[in-house]
Every structure is written in structure tokens, then in C-alpha cells.
Design goal:
Two copies of one chain form a homodimer. Chain A is of the alpha+beta class. Chain A is built from eleven helices and 16 strands. In chain A, strand 13 and strand 14 form a beta hairpin. Chain A is globular. At the A-B interface, helix 8, helix 9, strand 14 and helix 11 of A face helix 8, helix 9, strand 14 and helix 11 of B.
Chain lengths: 389, 389
């Protein structure tokens, strides 16, 4: 059900012909009424910003945080496409608005796929009427299906808002920052809770910061990354804390689904760096490890080679004392005080063989802590990223 | 000939038993006289500093920039080995000094290989007498052979110092910052030019900054990276500029050999970022691209997918205007003003198929320029880095 689990929303997904495969590639999430509701978004900070990001940001500013629909396409990112790309993004909004009976600036737009290729706008515009006609309160799955690129399965979530009867539903595509040929992670959330746009924005930012923003597969921040939430208000007011928690949980579940489906990954690694001089140091250290091809290869090889992790921490530009560092795989300490220590090697081997791996690095310096979700580096990752533009 | 091309030096390489394969693993470069000469070094800035780096740095400080010999082992990095590791590094110097008749602090030491494993010091100390006995003015090749780890060939260089009759010779191992299971790039240079230690240090730093420091294969800075130069003075004084140029050229040739032999690489990529707001911005942008698994995969796949490069530049934290960026492969412009432009696709395909690839990104903002030597990312890289600790 995903984005149509909350009352007041309809959705659809169709194949309009962007993808040569004939797979679904055009997706719509809209209010059932066609009227704008409270809305908020978080966009990529990549300065090579894609046209749809510029357009959606502008529309949200113009409406003061309201939107009636989101139209999304896969198969082409409409990034690095210049002024024609911006006109195309506007045209997608206008065509959608014409079908729904709202204003063009009440529509948000997302694209994902190849960078630097002109959007096949005629094909898309020709597909919008059929897309709009297909929208139903049961259309969440079809909408989620149509935003897939290299995703091997749909990412969907429904989280209850405490005991209020309201829900937060959502769909997503892509592993954040993994973004192969296909640029981007996209997520659209909906809720029927009643909430002001400013509060919605604050809750979304908080949810993103502890979910999508700690997901780091290959360290690439895409040109198109977008997370949008719409709130219909049809389930009435709910406690702020309950809604914030549900939004956070929905983001976290989608982020975990992305990490689990990252291109070619055989492992999801939950990496914690603690004992750092500051949270910022911990975060920089964790990201240095998560970015390291050497560390990622060691996980793929199921090799508890902690020296690589320590070497990354030592060159991460953070406070570091090699005499204090310790490393645990699956809670089993393999190094302490900067040297290998005796440990149950069979138990560590069993931990390394699991699909989900927890690694803790303690710098022994302070209270700074950070968590990153990441993956291993595999042959399949290379195969998926060596061509196809 | 490498490190024994300059007058006044002897060298040797033997197998002492560190490597299970029985391959040569212990190497010596020394003055023929056994007396200390002018010396300088550049070490890794990784704070997970290996014991031999700490020892060599301490010895050079104590002598004010003089050394009689360098002993090197491959097969074990003596990194993350704590106080016992530091005692082992000292013991290698003391054993070498006893054979040469100099002081222990007149010997420098380098190690390369696995991190976090205690050094098999007894095996090494037992091998030092045979190593010292094998030293000859023709021993350069054997010395270069014994420092190989995953290198598929010896890295050696000899460069004349202008028309002075003096030379700079050198040997190296490893692709800087690629450092698989094997930590490290090591290089030892020698010259028979007469030069003061302080000048030698300045020239070495300058040479390293434009060679080894622009070599970036997987962005890892090793725990053991070391470049050492010894100057016997036997060829007499030479013009400063000539010597500085020869040292720079020797470093550049060794760095290029490393890039060409980087683990599993099928391509050496000479990446230039220009038109940046500053040299620092250009450098940060070039390193962001060189670090990107997505960009590296596109080179392996011979895919001129410039959008990935632009996306990395856009998220590198530097001044960037997507309307101004242009990208050339082998001098052929494929993107300008942030969008794809018509170009000779067959010519670009031919360029991408070459082993040596030149890529230029122009940010269109200022005069900042940077050059980085890097590689593609391949299946073989993963295979070499998925186990073996």
C-alpha cells in the first residue's frame, strides 16, 4: 500500500516508454481531492543540482509548503540538461496539474536515471493522462514499482502514528549515494495526520538525518536525491512526538531496505565509531571507513582485518591515538590498545559470514559517537557500473 | 641498478623467511663506506603510524639528517604492533649497524606488508648477517626485488643530474595509497651529488609533492608510507636546480610506474581539474573524482559518462556552477556549459580504450589547477583485497 495507506491519497504507476525495457517508468502520488495539502521536502546538497530538484524546491517555496501531487519518472535523471531540462521539469508539473485540476506550482517532480541525457519529454507528456486516469486509493504498489531503477525490489513502508489511527506510509528507490548509472535516491512519504507545514518540515529533516543521511554505500551524493512528505490531515491532529517518531521510523525502514538492496552488496554493515573527541570526529571517522574500498573489500572477503579500519581512522583528519583504539566485530573484540588481542576466531568467522554485520570502533578519547549504514564492495557492483550510459 | 647507480652505495636483497612463498623479503641500501651521509625523508601523515616510521623519524632527528643505511622488509608492515613493534624496529637497526660498523641510530628502517601482525623478528635478525654480507655496488636490482609485495614488477629509476656526471637512482614498491593487504608505498633514492641535508630535504619534499602525492589509486594513506634519500657526495657539488630537477624526475617516474602497476588496474588516468576558484578547490575536486567508485568503474567500462565526474565535482564542497563546467576525454570535449555537446563518438571510444587516459574538467570559474594520477576499479582489485590477512 505504501503511499496510499494514509487516508486522502491516490497513486498510480505506468509504463510510458522512457525505459527501452517497457518496464513501468512514470509514477504519481496525489491527494484524492486534487487540492494542495501540507508538504515538506529535503533535497540533495550536490551543486550539480538536477532540474526537477530546482523545480520542486521553487514550487514549495512559492506555496509556502503545500502540494497536491508528486510526479516521478525513472529511466532518466533530467540532470546536467541545462535550460531545456528545467523547461521539461516544469512541463511535467503543468501536464499533471491539468489532469488534476490544480496549479502547476502545486505539483512537485522527481526524476531518476541517466545523467546528461535530454529527457524524452514528449513520451512523458503523452503518458501523463493515462497515469492520472490510473490513480486509485490502491495504487501505492504500482507507484513504488514505477520508480525502480536497479532496485531488485520495491521499497515500501507503513508505520502507525502511535495509537492515533493515523499512519505514515512511504515508498523509495535506490540506495542513497550508491546511485549507479541511475542517479539518486528518491522517497515519497504520506500521512493522514493533521500537522502544519513548518512542523512537518522539522520532523522530516530530523527523520532524514538519522536514516537516509547515515546511509553511505559508495559515498556519492546524487544530483537528484529528494525526500518528500505530504500530509492530508484526514485522520485529524496527533501528538507531535508520535508523528515525529513515525516519520523517523518510516525513513529508517526505507533506508535499511535501500542498504539491503545496494547494488551488488552481499552485506549490510552497521558501523559505529565511538569514544571520539566529538560527534563530528566520530562521523568523519565512520565515513572514512565506509568510503574505503579496502575496508569494503575486507567485508566482502569476510576478513576481520581491523588494521584497515584503524588505518582509515588514523588518516581521517580527526583526533586519534593509536594506543587507545579498539575494534569489535559482532561484539567480539579483536584489537585493543592499537594491537591485536586473542579472541575466539571461529566466533568472529561466524559473525563475518552473516549478511548483517555490526562493527564497533572505539577511539578511547571522548564521548563522540556516530552510526553509519554501509555495504561491502563486490564484483557485481563493478559490473553494474561499468557501462550503460 | 637503481639505488646503486650513484657512486658510494651498495645494496642487497635476500629471502629471510618472512614470506611463506620463500620470495625475497629483506633489503638493504647502505653507503659503501658504512659511514653516515646526508639524508632526508618524507613520511606518511596517517596517525596510525607504523613502528618503523616512528623509528626512522626519530633517528633522522637525532642525527640531524644523516644515515648510513636503510633496512627494509616486505611481508609484514610492523604496524599496529604497539611497544613490541617499536622494539622490533629498533632491533632491525641495531642488527644492521652491528654488521656495518655504524651506530644503530644511523640506520633507517621501512616495513611493508600485513598490518596488525607481530613482526617475525627472530627470522629477520637471523637474516641480517647474510643480507649485509651480500651487499655490493651491483645489488640495486636485488634490493628492489626484495621490497615487492603485490607489485608485478620492480620499480627502479636512474636520472642524470644535468650534465654533471652525478645521478639520482631509486627504487620503490606499491602503488601509493593503494596498499592492499600490503600496507604502503616505499621509495629509497640515492645520489652521489654533494648536497647539504637541509637542501636535500627541501628538494625531496618538492619532488614528492608533485609525484607520489598526486598519485591516488584508492584514496588510502598507508600507515607506513616512506620516501628516503641518501646523498654520498662522491660526485661533488652540482647546481641546486639540476639536482632538484633530477630528484623530481626520479620521483615522478617511480610514481608513474606505481600507477601503471596499481592492483588490478587496466588504466592509468591523468586527471586534470582546471578553472577552479583556487588550486585547493581544484585539488579537492580532482581527489573527489579519483576517490569515486562510480567514476573509476566508468573508466574500467570505457564509458565517457561525464555526468558522474560533474556530480562528484558538484558535491566536493568547492565553488561550482553547473552552467560553466566542461569535460574532455583525451582532449575531445563531450560536455560544455553543464550539458552534453555533439562530439566524435568514435574518437572518444578510441580514447577510452587506451591504457593511458587523459581527462580534463574545466570549472570555468578561475585559475585553480590540479593534477592527479589515478586508476580504474576492477574485479582484480576486489580479488586482491578480499582476504589474505
Amino acid at each position: 500500500m505504501s503511499v496510499t495507506a494514509a487516508k486522502g491519497f491516490v497513486a498510480a504507476g505506468v509504463a510510458c516508454g522512457i525505459k527501452a525495457s517497457g518496464d513501468p517508468d512514470l509514477s504519481l502520488v496525489a491527494t484524492a481531492s486534487g487540492r494542495p495539502v501540507e508538504a515538506a521536502a529535503v533535497f540533495t546538497d550536490n551543486k550539480m543540482t538536477a532540474a526537477p530538484v530546482l523545480t520542486s524546491d521553487e514550487h514549495l517555496r512559492r506555496t509556502g509548503g503545500h502540494a497536491a501531487a508528486v510526479i516521478l519518472n525513472s529511466g532518466n535523471a533530467n540532470a546536467a540538461t541545462g535550460a531545456p531540462g528545467r523547461r521539461d521539469a516544469q512541463a511535467m508539473c503543468a501536464a499533471t496539474a491539468a489532469e488534476l485540476g490544480c496549479e502547476p506550482h502545486e505539483v512537485l517532480v522527481c526524476s531518476t536515471g541517466l545523467i546528461g541525457i535530454p529527457l524524452p519529454i514528449d513520451v512523458i507528456l503523452a503518458g501523463v493522462p493515462a497515469l492520472a486516469a490510473a490513480r486509485t486509493p490502491q495504487g501505492g504498489d504500482a507507484a513504488a514499482e514505477a520508480i525502480r531503477t536497479t532496485d531488485t525490489y520495491r521499497k515500501e513502508v507503513v508505520v502507525p502514528v502511535g495509537g492515533t489511527g493515523a499512519v505514515v506510509g512511504g515508498m523509495a528507490k535506490g540506495a542513497a549515494m550508491l546511485a549507479p548509472n541511475m542517479a539518486t535516491m528518491l522517497a515519497v512519504l504520506t500521512t493522514d495526520a493533521e500537522v502544519a507545514s513548518a512542523d512537518l518540515r522539522r520532523m522530516l529533516r530530523a527523520g532524514v538525518s538519522t536514516s537516509f543521511n547515515v546511509l553511505m554505500t559508495d559515498a556519492c551524493r546524487s544530483t537528484n536525491d529528494t525526500v518528500i512528505i505530504l500530509a492530508s490531515g484526514e485522520a485529524g491532529p496527533v501528538p507531535d512526538d508520535d508523528l515525529a517518531a513515525a516519520i523517523g521510523e518510516a525513513c529508517a525502514q526505507l533506508a535499511f531496505q535501500m542498504a539491503s538492496d545496494a547494488e551488488g552488496a552481499t552485506k549490510v554493515v552497521k558501523l559505529t565509531v565511538k569514544g571520539a573527541a566529538s560527534d563530528a570526529d566520530a562521523d568523519a571517522g565512520a565515513r572514512a571507513i565506509a568510503r574505503s574500498a579496502l575496508c569494503k573489500c575486507s567485508w566482502f572477503g569476510q576478513d576481520p582485518y581491523w588494521g584497515r579500519l584503524a588505518s582509515e581512522l588514523g588518516s581521517a583528519g580527526i583526533a586519534f591515538d593509536q594506543e587507545r583504539v579498539s575494534v569489535c566485530y559482532g561484539g567480539i573484540r579483536v584489537a585493543d590498545g592499537g594491537v591485536s588481542i586473542p579472541h575466539d576466531e571461529a566466533a568472529v568467522a561466524a559473525v563475518m559470514a552473516e549478511r548483517h554485520l555490526e562493527i564497533d570502533c572505539d577511539l578511547g578519547l571522548g564521548d563522540g559517537t556516530a552510526l553509519i549504514l554501509t555495504n561491502d564492495l563486490t564484483h557485481e557492483y563493478i559490473d553494474e557500473n561499468t557501462g550503460g550510459s
